[in-house]
Design a protein that fits this description.
- This protein has one domain.
- 35% of the residues lie in helices and 26% in strands.
- Strand 6 and strand 7 form a beta hairpin.
- The longest helix has 26 residues.
- The chain is elongated.
- The termini are far apart.
Length: 150
């Protein structure tokens, strides 16, 4: 009888713990770094556009915001010459309407990592494609991506 009650407590406690972990990982608004930021960005871009991260590009950081509708942020560095080429390739491969945003556009819909600062890019250019916003500087070689769900 005691073993049965003990097992019941473990099962109920484990279930409650799983609910708490689920809420923290998916609804808390906390910002979690991505372990394989390059791989994650590569996978998302390939699925959406059929184009990946250029070989010479370096994905500096990536983060996911734990919300019901997820948001991911990426910081990419590359040679300034490659930035425009990559932006044009993604724009050409986009399945939905492309909108050139103005530098005064809203940068994100919710929380963002402190390193994510596209508004500080010199000569800021903005492309809004499908569920990706690409903020880039053709003169500095720095690119920020904001990926989200509807």
């Amino acid at each position: 009888m005691k073993i049965k009650n003990y097992v019941k407590r473990i099962v109920i406690g484990g279930g409650a713990l799983l609910v708490v972990v689920f809420i923290v990982l998916n609804c808390s608004g906390l910002i979690f770094p991505l372990r394989d930021a390059r791989g994650d960005l590569e996978q998302r871009l390939m699925a959406q556009f059929g184009k990946g991260v250029p070989a010479g590009a370096k994905v500096i950081k990536g983060a996911r915001v734990a919300e019901r509708d997820w948001s991911e942020f990426y910081w990419v560095e590359m040679t300034p010459a490659d930035v425009g080429t990559w932006a044009a390739a993604l724009e050409a491969a986009s399945k939905e309407k492309i909108e050139d945003g103005s530098p005064t556009t809203q940068f994100v819909a919710g929380r963002e990592p402190e390193w994510y600062q596209p508004q500080k890019l010199p000569d800021l250019k903005v492309l809004k494609m499908d569920r990706f916003w690409m903020f880039y500087s053709p003169t500095s070689g720095r690119v920020f991506f904001y990926c989200f769900t509807d």
